[in-house]
Amino acid sequence: MTWSCGLLPIHKRHTSKMNSKVGVLIFLLCVTGICVFWRGDVSSYFAPREERPWACSSEDEPLFMQRFSKFAEPFLSVNNNLSEDNFNWWKRLQAESRSFNAYKETVSKMFQMIPTSAEDEASSPDRCRSCAVVGNSVNLKKSHYGPLIDFQDVVIRMNRGPTKGYEADVGTRTTHHVMYPESAVNLENNTHLVLFAFKILDLEWVTKALSTGFSGSSYAPIASNIKANKDLVMVLDPAFMRYVHEEWLQKKGVYPSTGFMALVLALHICDEVHVFGYGADSDGNWSHYWEELRNKKLKTGGHPGDVEYAKIKELDQNQIIKFYRGG
């Protein structure tokens, strides 16, 4: 047996070299496969970052955004108190009959259960924070947007929109889930529950559903308990709803939809906003991607759906957001 300077025997060195070559070949094939997937499923949606005018805009905001001042604090906190004027606007949304003092007492009890301020990871000069806002439109079906949605830093979903069984079109990740009691679903422990409260009962619900159990009633069934991390609960400021209705929608409709408020919220917490799953189907029906439509005249009720959709297209045209229309 011939040895060489303390290395492996020569016949074993040949075997080792062959194994190394096979290993390198397998590695290169894997890398190639990943690159093909990346180009085919994710990066084809993107222009290079420096060519994406909607990404991490400069200090000079486009003219379109100059029409809107950013809302200082989108979420409630112990130091962010609602004015009585804003309360009186909010209480009309769903005919709230209780007083401003009842509201304040309920909020005080709520902050004994959830964080006293809504802390969220902020963007920084050296980091562009991207959001995927995922609506529930039927236009998501067969869109294959799933990988692109999961690629974003923040993934905002809302109400009862499921991911299981629809992963290819809607993705799998959820960092923030917008809901109200009548649309509540269980959440993973690392997902923020973002409550859009339309009445005092909604604030009572989030307090009790995460502790002793809720026993009230509403216009639709409400879960008495919900699985969610109480340390990640965030509650939208009712004044933010008014801001969206008056500044963004010019008071059209009774009040904004959950979906449109979630989109405007994303503009406040992210540098780069990608919007999916909004708009009516080809017949003008506002249906969901997981349901077979029975009501062929399904519209948006008190929400100004057409006005909101026109505003989304305007935001896209002005390169404030990137809107993916789907099928």
From TrEMBL:
Q: In which pathway does it act?
A: Glycolipid biosynthesis; Protein modification; protein glycosylation
Q: What is its main location?
A: Golgi
What pairs make up the disulfide bonds? C131-C270
Gene Ontology CC = extracellular region; Golgi cisterna membrane
GO molecular function terms here?
Answer: beta-D-galactosyl-(1->3)-N-acetyl-beta-D-galactosaminide alpha-2,3- sialyltransferase; beta-galactoside (CMP) alpha-2,3-sialyltransferase activity
Transmembrane domains' residue ranges: 22-40
Cellular localization per UniProt: Golgi apparatus, Golgi stack membrane; Secreted
Q: How does it assemble?
A: Homodimer; disulfide-linked. Homodimer formation occurs in the endoplasmic reticulum.
UniProt protein name: CMP-N-acetylneuraminate-beta-galactosamide-alpha-2,3-sialyltransferase 1
Q: Which organism is it from?
A: Cyclopterus lumpus
